[in-house]
Amino acid sequence: xxxxxxxxxxxxxxxxxxxxxxxxxxxxxxxxxxxxxxxxxxxxxxxxxxxxxxxxxxxxxxxxxxxxxxxxxxxxxxxxxxxxxxxxxxxxxxxxxxxxxxxxxxxxxxxxxxxxxxxxxxxxx
Length: 125
Hints:
Helix content is 30%, strand content 18%. It is of the alpha+beta class. The protein has a 4-stranded mixed sheet. GO terms for molecular function: ATP binding; ATP hydrolysis activity.
């Protein structure tokens, strides 16, 4: 956030954001406070301008917040988007979603070749 307030772009990546901010209910007070604090920050509590970017990773909401002179991009990744507190998925928060599916056989082959590039392998592999 310090870089963002200095006019630079900062990215905050929240992996498995559903574990950090699950749906709120009365019996889970600590989690409710964590969700409420994150909502405050996304709504401008960190004094940074709105800057949303597509999320990456699994089915992943991504968003930003407002105020200040820098840019903060918040990206959340989850494989359970419906487990997130609905307030996080509202406009101006983590409101953009990109679903990244399971790769097919051709895509898996391309990924494997990418990771094996430069390695000495037996012929035919």
